[in-house]
Design goal:
binds magnesium ion, Molybdopterin biosynthesis moea protein, domain 2, Molybdenum Cofactor Biosythetic Enzyme, Chain A, alpha/beta, 657 residues, 6-stranded mixed beta sheet, binds ligand LQZAQKY5, molybdenum cofactor biosynthesis, 35 strands, binds molybdate ion
Length: 657
């Protein structure tokens, strides 16, 4: 059963080794993934803490205070001395829910006798249901499966939602009681498929039947959008809430990791530098000898075998930058601070020199490990791999590296009038630019995409194309057909045929008003859909504002949001629309002042306004800008203050050039 109730869920991984990083946590990510599928409308997050009773209690109490609906703990329910999750839970809950623990125990016993060693406690603290799950990923997933049907009902009961509870009583009484015996994992999967395919949308998907959306007789169409208008920031937040960071990794040759996100800490097995290295071309000396004459004994050239002989008082070794400093020397004096006293007859060797400046101990020597100590983390998990990271991997001889798997994204164009660039077009038709712009925007930010083609504004073909897109992609971007026309069918197909939830269907911005975001479950997997407007400038702006940050977040990039700065907008063209205007601009920094210049005609259809743009200037509607009174002998008039500074979203960092 896929639940449609809104819930906030937390997974609390309780484990000393997983919280210290000594062991990899797989239970948390797996539970999150399963919860997203079971409860697609829930907001799910995860924390990892040690097996510490006080800390467990403090997390559970915090969640209860925040009115989190359900907390699933995983770990710490066994018999070892540090296992204290049930004890902590018992001290936090006000009502115990032994039925949940019994159901898990009873059904687990059918799989393994070891289940009798579980000490799980379940109960309610304030309005939060707390469920102890086992620590093993397999056990945790199985136990979640055993009680999943009861969770939404429990949440509705806790919140005293009488109508929902009554409705659920009817539904539950019509369901057969599940039999715990002989459940091989294959039969369990099959059962899940059946349950999912009983969803109206999913059943249609299986058989690829026609869409249930009928294009209305035009007179019957909506005259008002059914979707409330949301602010851009709220829309961005909703998207992030429903996108889950990826935990799977790929192992790639180090040079192919450029632009990807590291999925492991990279340690240096050797200190850097690995030997005391000279910073200058000059002479290695004993600083205690001070200024004055030195006999030049040997030479140390970078790449040569290090000198083993101890340097003696009054001696110097001629040394080049990067060469190992000989034992006994504690300073390097650059050649500029010396004078030649004596050379060999043919001039090929120096015999004696004079040090002209008092040398200090440690001068111009890079000590062993002074840049990076042995065994320390040099590249950090979730760093975005840049050129220097590649260089460091080369330096360490790290030939392969683990990176975060990239999300699978499909791009689908819709519109009766849309043709491929190479096709002959008839009057009234246009060539598809959106699919190509989107593909290359994604590429610029390091993401691959699957081309899902162009479809007509016909619910049947839109449905079929979406099914194909969902087969292979976790994220699907559609363009066109998102607004108020009777042939704008994308959102209706998603809702009716796929049982999708449209989290928002309109955004208060120009361009980009019809932008929408939906989630749905297709064949047991959660899919995320960005419906972008057909207008090419709107489509690009919304890809930058909504899609790229979401994909960066999913790839675990720390800096997934584009930076925002304040800047001068010298061309003071007010925004006469009621929506904030996201103008395509070229941002320049000159003499310490950052200015943003408009990229020409800002109409939503003009893709040219996006060419060369490296930022978006957010210009608030003129109507919201304060009025300034101007007093004169003829009376007072009011003029709008045009703000000198506007917020700029930078999608190319101008400082990188
Ligand atoms: N009654 C209303 N009409 C419109 C509203 C509204 O609120 N009420 N919103 C307008 C806004 S704002 C936008 S933006 C557009 C968005 O429309 P759709 O997403 O439904 O897109 P289409 O109608 O399919 O196409 C709009 C426009 O874009 C061209 N287009 C479409 N796909 C492509 C493509 N792949 N490559 C290039 N150009 C494309 C299409 O030919 C149209 O000219 O709706 C307003 N209407
Ligand atoms: O929002 Mo639309 O993109 O203004 O033209
Ligand atoms: Mg339209």
């Amino acid at each position: 059963m896929i639940s449609s109730i809104n819930m906030s869920i937390r997974v609390l991984v309780v484990s000393d080794t997983r919280s210290s990083g000594d062991a990899k946590d797989t239970a948390g990510p797996k539970l999150m993934e399963k919860l997203h599928v079971l409860f697609p409308y829930a907001e799910v997050a995860c924390n990892t803490i040690p097996d510490d009773k006080a800390e467990i209690k403090s997390y559970l109490q915090k969640y209860a205070k925040q009115d989190i609906d359900v907390v699933f703990t995983t770990g710490g329910t066994g018999f070892s001395p540090r296992d204290v999750t049930p004890e902590a839970t018992r001290e936090v809950i006000e009502k115990e829910a032994p039925g949940l623990a019994t159901a898990m125990m009873f059904r687990s016993l059918a799989k393994t006798e070891m289940a009798m060693l579980s000490r799980a406690v379940c109960g309610v603290a304030s309005k939060t249901l707390i469920v102890n799950l086992p620590g093993s990923p397999k056990g945790a997933l199985e136990c979640l499966d055993f009680i999943k049907e009861a969770i939404p009902h429990a949440v509705n009961c806790i919140n005293d939602r009488k109508e929902e509870v009554a409705r659920e009583h009817i539904t539950i009484s019509q369901q057969p009681v599940a039999q715990p015996q002989e459940q091989s994992s294959a039969s369990k999967e099959a059962r899940e498929d059946v349950t999912i395919s009983q969803q109206p949308g999913a059943q249609l998907q299986e058989q690829s039947s026609p869409s249930r959306v009928k294009v209305n007789k035009v007179a019957a169409r909506n005259r008002e959008s059914p979707y409330p208008m949301v602010e851009e920031k709220d829309a961005s937040d909703v998207i992030i809430k429903h996108c889950m960071p990826i935990h799977e990794t790929d192992t790639v040759p180090f040079e192919e990791s450029f632009g990807r996100v590291l999925a492991e800490n990279v340690c240096t097995p050797e200190p850097i530098p690995a030997f005391r290295a000279s910073i200058k071309d000059g002479y290695a000396v004993k600083s205690a000898d001070g200024m004055g004459k030195r006999t030049v004994k040997q030479k140390a050239i970078a790449g040569d075998k290090p000198i083993e002989d101890e340097l003696q008082h009054g001696e110097a070794v001629r040394i080049s930058t990067g060469a190992p400093v000989p034992p006994g020397a504690d300073a390097v004096v650059q050649v500029e601070d010396t004078k030649l006293l004596q050379a060999s007859e043919d001039g090929s060797e120096e015999i004696a020199i004079e040090i002209l400046k008092e040398p200090k101990a440690g001068q111009d020597i890079r000590d062993i490990g002074s840049e990076v100590a042995k065994d320390s983390v040099v590249l950090h998990k979730y760093d975005r791999i840049d050129a220097a990271h590649i260089g460091i991997m080369a330096q360490l001889g790290k030939l392969e590296v683990k990176v975060v798997r990239r999300p699978a994204v499909g791009i689908l164009s819709t519109g009766n009038e849309i043709k491929e660039p190479w096709e002959r077009i008839q009057p009234g038709q246009i060539r598809d630019s959106n699919r190509y712009t989107l593909k290359h925007m994604l590429r610029k930010f390091g993401f691959h995409s699957m081309d899902c083609g162009i479809v007509k504004d016909d619910p049947n073909v839109v449905k079929q194309a979406l099914e194909k897109a969902f087969e292979q992609n976790e994220y699907v971007i559609t363009t066109g057909g998102a607004s108020m026309g009777e042939f704008d069918v994308v959102k209706r197909v998603l809702e009716v045929d796929f049982d999708a939830r449209i989290h928002f269907g309109r955004v208060n911005m120009k361009p980009g008003k019809p932008t929408s975001f939906a989630t749905l479950v297709y064949k047991g997997k959660l899919k995320k859909v960005f419906c972008l407007p057909g207008n090419p400038a709107s489509c690009s702006v919304c890809c930058l504002l909504f899609v790229i940050p979401a994909l960066r977040y999913v790839e675990n990039q720390r800096d997934y949001k584009f930076p925002m700065i304040r800047a001068d907008v010298p061309e003071k063209v007010p925004n006469s629309d009621a929506r904030p205007d996201y103008r395509r601009v070229t941002v320049e920094a000159k003499d310490g002042i950052i200015s943003a210049y408009s990229n020409g005609n800002q109409i939503s259809s003009n893709l040219n306004s996006v060419c060369n743009a490296n930022g978006l200037a957010i210009i608030q509607p003129q109507s919201t800008i304060p009025q300034r009174p101007i007093h004169s002998p003829f009376g007072t008039t009011y003029v709008s203050e045009v703000p000198l500074e506007q917020v700029i979203v930078l999608f190319d960092n101008i400082y990188e050039y």
